[in-house]
Amino acid sequence: MNSGKVSKSNWTDEIATLKAQKNAVIMAHYYQTGDIQDIADYVGDSLALAQWAARTDADIIVLCGVHFMGETAKILSPEKKVLVPDLAAGCSLADSCPADKFEEFVRSHPDYTVISYVNTTAAVKALTDVVVTSTNAKQIVDSFPPDAKLIFGPDRNLGNYINAVTGRKMLLWDGACHVHEQFSVEKIVALKQQYPDAEVLAHPECKSAVLALADYVGSTAALLKYSIRSSKQTFIVATESGILHEMQKQSPTKTFIPAPPNDSTCACNECSFMRLNTIEKLYDCLRNESPEIVVDSEVAAKAVRPIRRMLELSDQLGL
Ligand code: 13P
Ligand code: SF4
Fold it and tell me: Which of 88, 77, 71 is nearest to 281 (CA)?
């Protein structure tokens, strides 16, 4: 089935009706397009999405984000139906860490604790001791003794950043996100010259040369909070450009400039996977209750432990 005769202007009403009929809730990541963020019941970063998915009493969760976010929601709420508008919405970072290769790496370091970024498949989480997001990675790493032997995967940029701010020497998996890897240092420097009062806000998935230019480094939610409380008027934002929607909404008089990619011929600061979801597909998936996230029960039984451990630690840390 497709969205048939429903016109774009009616989607808001139609989606609201379907949500009420089906006791469904819509959760969206900040990297979704503005129309999806505006229609969602909850908009947040990866940690917030996992926390909401664990707590909701809805029967259906429509997770407007990428596949690993849907998997995390399903693992935390297996009795609920978890839908993602486009199942092909993957993640280059998660793809950079195949479970079989990661298992070899983990097995070759048997006395190490395994910390995995949430941007991983359920199969990688099943090999993990504790999951982290960019909001809680530093605090969770800090919760281990200073001499603990730690593996961190899959993002080498986030891992390098956490090593630098905690003074650790965690063993890193060599993965990266195709969006955050390609911000241009030269173009950010040029923008800084053009807007000398602007602050650079960067996500820790960016390369260290970009982070070195940043006035503030944090998760999407942390960058948003910083942009609200900062007295500055202009911000150069080095993360997926979807976050600018909420930044601009929260601070209508401030100016937000997306950090440019190396390749000026592409919209490479947009995540091609995140952007597979559209409002039309959101409507269709809620109406058809498909496509649905399915996680193998044995994998889920192993993956739920490190995710729950992250949620417990985050609660203790007040995150
Ligand atoms: P956060 O939502 O944790 O900031 O992560 C960003 C991201 O890359 C999601 O894919
Ligand atoms: Fe994955 Fe990067 Fe897209 Fe985030 S922005 S979902 S890390 S590919």
Answer: 88
